[in-house]
Amino acid sequence: MKKLGLKLSLAAALLAGVAVTNTAYADDAPSWGTLSAYVAVTSDYRYRGISQNSKEFAPQASVNWSGPDGFYAGTWLSKVNWGGNNPSFEMDLYAGKHTDLDGTDLNLEAYYYSYPDAKFPGTKASYYETIGQLSHVFGPLTLTLTGANSPEWSLSGGTGWYVEGTAAYALTDWLSISGNLGHQWVSAAPSDYTHYDIGGTATYKSWSLDARYVGSDISQASCAAFWMATPKACEGGFVATITYNIADLFQ
């Protein structure tokens, strides 16, 4: 279960989203668009505050097509382990469109979270979300508001709703700090919850290093009962992610 778009840590995801928008609107882009990619390793794959890989290192990768008029599509992969290595990997598919609203970016996205080798008799892990984002740049500060809805959450969880706010500030051309605050509702969950993270991202050429603290207000009982098989998955902790970006696969 990855966060919207090019699902890394918060700051990396935000910066990638801005890059996709700029690429899609570039006047010198090929008529068919551009194809970009990245590979990454994270110390703990967190989705909305919850560890998806038993708090272990996870390799990740993504390929993204940015087409004309703000359209884009792509796929994202990561190692996961919800317990007993079931499922063992996540393969997401997404497509959407960026629209410029007088200086504010509107991003509407269809997102499918897929777990091809998941084994949960009588239910399925894979699920769909419709995601909407509004982003505006105020000099070095970028503010983003995200909302999402799932008609049927993973493992027959019922309707899911999500909202988050993101702030990222560019200290220099290679270093930024960012923070995220989100709230998740799912019909079958014993309670809704709030999660947060704060950290920084450093970039050098095609490389980026993101380090942040991630936490939530999920109780151990609620975590083990619904959100993940082990209560430790919902505990706070530091997460580091290193990423290698390929801006254009055909250059």
Q: In words, what does this structure look like?
A:
This protein starts with 9 loop residues before the first helix and ends in a 5-residue tail after the last strand. 10% of the residues lie in helices and 54% in strands. It has helices at 10-25, 220-227, and strands at 34-42, 46-47, 50-51, 58-66, 71-79, 89-101, 104-113, 127-138, 141-153, 158-170, 175-186, 193-204, 207-216, 237-246. By secondary structure, the protein is mainly β.
**N→C terminal distance:** 31 Å
| Radius of gyration based on Cα positions | 17 Å
CATH fold field value: Porin
CATH H-level homologous superfamily name: monomeric porin ompg
Element pattern in H and E:
HEEEEEEEEEEEEEHE
Strand content: over 45%
Structural class: mainly beta
CATH architecture: Beta Barrel
Question: How many separate domains?
Answer: 1
Strand order in the sheet with the most strands: 1-4-5-6-7-8-9-10-11-12-13-14
The average pLDDT is: 90
| Number of helices, where a helix is a run of at least 4 consecutive DSSP H or I residues | 2
The tally of strands reads: 14
Largest sheet: 12 strands, antiparallel, barrel
Helix amount, in percent? under 10%
**CATH class category name:** Mainly Beta
Query: Which geometry do the CA atoms define?
Result: globular
Poorly predicted regions are 3-26
